[in-house]
Amino acid sequence: MAFSAAAGLSGGAFADPDEDQLTINGEIEIVTETAAPEHLEYVDTIYSGWRFRSDETQAVQMDDFDNPGMIFVEAAMETWDTVEGTEGKSCASCHNDVETMAGVRAVYPKYVEAAGEVRTLEHQINGCREERMGAEPYKYTSGDMVAMVGLISMVSRGLPVNVQIDGPAQSTWEKGKEIYYTRYGQLELSCANCHEDNYGNMIRADHLSQGQINGFPTYRLKNTKLNSVHARFKGCVRDTMAHTFKPGGPEFTALELYVASRGNGLSVEGPSVRN
Amino acid sequence: MRNLVTGAAVCAVIATVAAAEVVAPTEVVFEDGAVATSLTGTAGDIENGATLMNKGAGNCIACHQVSALSNLPFHGEVGPTLDGVADRWSEAELRGIVANAKMMFDGTMMPSFYKTEGFIRLGDAYTGNAHEGEVAPLLTAQEVEDVVAYLMTLKEE
Q1: Each residue of A224-238: pLDDT tens digit?
Q2: Which residue is catalytic, options A236, A242, A251, A265?
Q3: What does the entry list as the binding residues for heme c 2 (chain A) (predicted)?
Q4: Coil vs helix vs strand at A71
Q5: Does B13 score more than 70 pLDDT?
Q6: B chain contacts of residue A244, beta-carbon cutoff 8 Å
Q7: Domain count, chain A
């Protein structure tokens, strides 16, 4: 009768992702598998969610002409040059070409000295809109916001995720880690139950991945739009029959930093395609 | 949503009055993870048990493969197959596992189906909102009995 939890969970790590390799547009090499960062205690190898999707879904992401997420990114490219707000400025007024944002996605969320806290890309975008442009902030998970995040992600594709977890970011990172391992809701499930103990396994019709966020924003075939990190977190927490946290709030910001750090070493992939 | 939940709570109260011997979720006695006596005193309905394996609050095949239910699509791989489970476990043990698997398997991922306390950030079903008011277990006492009755049919020997 002395069954341990490990007996039931041990299946997890043995069911592997597939062997496919990802190169976008025949030129951008994407690291979808690499050694886990040192801070991960229970996982040796990390994989992009792309490796858990079907060949058909994978193919849609391999060429920007096929990737429907790019339609939203193109719209954001126009927004980049569009003057908004009381200061008569566009993003381009201060940041020039969007290519100047290369590398930014890879290090967010990060501790921002001026703000005295860890901020997400979304927070920074709204910071510029409100404080520097005199424009209305975007709603945190709105279409405009996720498209802009998609654009800023795109210019970092292929670069390794590398968020900082020590120094001033450490306490936020630890808070995120605690959330990751807490079993919420009436189903009492943690992120780790599904994405650490059972990646590779089927849960009903879904092939569980490691729940990495290097591919965000993700274009989902299911809802035919770009989806933000916090919207996905919200969905996963809701599915445990729990009271979710607020997108953009301190809990999901901490969780995003922690989950991003679990993917340190994978390539920035967004906007990616998932089912 | 609120109406549905309140309605269910009222029904539960009526049921409790009608069948006085229903064991409340907080009163279940576990012995080495097993629950010796029926939660309702009414024999389980095998057919309803089979339905609960697939749909609604049970959804057991989200995590378990069951060959006898191979007509239904998408069986999960998170837990062990339940084929032959009645050869491995007694009725009392199966009742304990379904009511609260954490009493049998320390720290298991399997949800506790007949439990109403001790949750963190309990939600209002799948809305993502906070839960208010009385908590209903995932399965009613009779539904636990129905599922156990179905599991007792899963024999290979």
Answers
A1: 999 999 999 999 999
A2: A236
A3: 191, 194-195, 236
A4: helix
A5: no
A6: 123, 128
A7: 1
Contacts of B114 (CB under 8 A, 6+ apart): B25, B28, B39, B98, B99, B100, B137, B138, B139, B141, B144
Domain contains A226:
yes
Residue ranges of the annotated binding site of A are 91, 94-95, 128, 191, 194-195, 232, 236
- CATH (domain of A109): 1.10.760.10
Q: Tally the domains of chain B.
A: 1
A12 in a domain, yes or no?
no
3-state secondary structure A131-167: HHHCCCCCCCCCHHHHHHHHHHHHCCCCCECCCCCCH
pLDDT digits (tens, 9 = 90+) for B112-132: 999 999 999 999 999 999 999
A157 within 8 A of A30, measured Cβ to Cβ: yes
Nearest to A185 among B77, B108, B123 (CB): B123
Amino acid at A106: A
pLDDT in tens, A49-79: 999 999 999 999 999 999 999 999 999 999 9
Q: How far is CA A89 from CA A74, A135, A146, B73, in A?
A: 20, 9, 21, 55
Enter the tokens of residue A268.
Answer: 């920035």
- In chain B, which residues have their Cβ closer than 8 Å to the Cβ of A202? 74-78
Instruction: For residue B93, give the CATH number of its domain.
Output: 1.10.760.10
Beta bridge partners of A45: A35
Is 70 exceeded by the pLDDT of residue A83? yes
B113 inside domain: yes
Query: Is A262 among the domain residues?
Result: yes
d(CA A191, CA A179): 8
Dist. CA A115–CA B34, nearest whole Å: 55
CA distance A187 to chain B (A): 5
Cα separation of B133 and B154, whole Å? 38
Cβ–Cβ below 8 Å for B61 and A204: yes
For residue B107, give the chain A residue with the closest CA.
A5
What does residue A151 show for φ and ψ, rounded to 5 degrees? Answer: -65, -45
Judged by CB atoms closer than 8 Å, whether chains meet at B110 and A184 is answered as no
- Chain A partners of B77 at a C-beta cutoff of 8 Å? 11, 15, 198, 201-203
Q: What is the ipTM of this complex?
A: 0.92
**From CA B116, how far away is CA A240, in angstroms rounded?**
15
Q: Is residue B91 part of a domain?
A: yes
